[in-house]
Amino acid sequence: MFQSQRIIENLKNNIFRMDKMILLIVYALVTISTVFVYSATRQNGMVVKNILWIAIGTILMFIIASFDYKNIKLYIWHIYGVGVMLLLLVRFAGKKTLGAQRWIALGPFQLQPSEFVKVAIILVIAYWIVDKYKNGINNLKDIIGSILPAIPLILLILIQPDLGTTLIAISAFLFMIFLYDANMKPIWIIGIVVMLSVYPVYRFVLSDYQRDRVETFLHPEKDKKGSGWHVIQSKISVGAGGVLGKGVLQGSQSRLEFLPEAQTDFIFSVLSEELGFVGSTLVLLLYLGLIYEIIRISRIIQDDFGRLILYGMAGVIFMHVIVNVGMTIGLVPVTGKPLLFMSYGGSSFLASFIIIGIVESIKIHNNK
């Protein structure tokens, strides 16, 4: 009896210490998600599944938040090993869809390990930097060394192929070391060299079919019924919303099935058509608020390990927004990356709630 009372009291204390603004934003986003998953599909079954993933994710979030994040250090290489095994399983026994082998079939459910491994990559890098680079990251050798343990995981994701998650993981790493006050001069130099080499590589290195892909991305109307179809329909959907939108459930692009993968990759297009510029801007402000709140927590804690994890999680959320929204308006190639807390999908929802669980754990347990 006393044990049960202690558990309940501990749970109450943890809930009291959680960041309420983060919870408010997250549940605003998943509520909007549920509405627009229905709008995109008009299937009650999809809505029920969406709510189920939200419920499971919520339970997972509270469980993770209740554990002290510092104990991650004790299991970091176990987490690493599980990540490697999952990605190898995908490689040799995964389900291949649309030319990519990214999923493991578990009965009616398809698990996408890369959604979870990107979180593991952040934890591994944070642990490695705190353990090996106590004097800071001061040069190119340190930058390369700080990401070294994560490279096998990143390469296993890349060969699926999953370029989107690979870029998100690398960008989150850069987010981490930039906010950690690393010497970024070598990165800026490399960035300038890459930018200057873009045209020569395009002109003299790429083959004809690779140049065609680049041109189709830049000018999707050149292949309206082929690889340019997705982007063209998405841009029509976004533009059709105007300032205030057509109204919830009134979007024509998804209802008439012109917009492919409307409930997953292009849910922001559905939202933009039905809520217009004002509604889509408000949703983006919710993401901005979520990222701001995570960074705010990082500024008030004393632990470098927790701070680095928060930087990485903020970077992951930021890059998902950039990649997904950029994809819907033709600024980024179509990579199939979900909009976290919005796009339909079990792996995406669960990984997103794991991220929030870890963030809340750092908020709760940092001063204990």
TrEMBL record:
Keywords: Cell shape, Membrane, Transmembrane, Transmembrane helix. The keyword Membrane applies. One of its GO terms (molecular function) is lipid-linked peptidoglycan transporter activity. It is found in: Membrane. It is a multi-pass membrane protein. The chain crosses the membrane at residues 21-41, 47-67, 74-93, 113-130, 142-159, 165-180, 187-205, 275-296, 308-332, 338-359. This is Rod shape-determining protein RodA. It comes from Leptotrichia shahii.
